[in-house]
């Protein structure tokens, strides 16, 4: 096999580096979320099953969001989707800061989780 065919171009290297960073930050995000579960449970006096639904919802929305934004890139520009994602992330974070109930906190998690998803489909289509 020729070694030239295995070399990556400059754009491909940038894409691979960015994807690796996204994977690392995604794992850090999930780890930090897992660390916050006991304090969420204590603050809102939740049972372990209620707290586990927060975690399941977080994972489901992560899976749905990537596919949804991937399909939306066919209709909207990358910049528009990325700005919408950042707005959702900021909106969800502000709601979470002022959340006084479990339902508001759950809604905040939904908004905040949809924020970072535009980055992956935007990077995949060049």
Question: Roughly what is the average pLDDT, rounded to an integer?
Answer: 75
Q: How would a textbook summarize the main sheet?
A: none
Spans of at least 5 consecutive residues with low confidence = none
Give the strand content: under 5%
Helix content range? over 70%
Between the first and last Cα atoms, what is the distance in angstroms? 27 Å
Radius of gyration: 18 Å
Kindly name the structural category.
mainly alpha
Please tally the β strands and state the result: 0
Task: List SSEs in N-to-C order.
Answer: HHHHH
Number of helices: 5
Oligomer: single chain
Shape: elongated
Would you mind describing this structure in some detail?
By secondary structure, this protein is an all-alpha fold. The protein contains five helices and no strands. Helix 1 packs antiparallel against helix 2 and helix 3 (about 80-100) packs antiparallel against helix 4. The radius of gyration is 18 Å and the shape is elongated.
């Amino acid at each position: 096999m020729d070694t030239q065919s295995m070399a990556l171009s400059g754009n491909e290297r940038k894409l691979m580096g960015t994807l690796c960073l996204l994977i690392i930050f995604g794992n850090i995000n999930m780890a930090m979320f897992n660390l916050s579960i006991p304090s969420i449970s204590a603050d809102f006096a939740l049972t372990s099953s209620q707290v586990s639904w927060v975690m399941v919802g977080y994972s489901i929305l992560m899976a749905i969001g990537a596919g949804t934004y991937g399909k939306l890139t066919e209709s909207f520009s990358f910049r528009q989707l990325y700005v919408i994602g950042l707005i959702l992330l900021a909106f969800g974070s502000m709601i979470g800061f002022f959340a006084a109930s479990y339902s508001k906190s759950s809604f905040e998690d939904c908004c905040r989780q949809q924020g970072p998803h535009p980055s992956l489909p935007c990077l995949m289509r060049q």
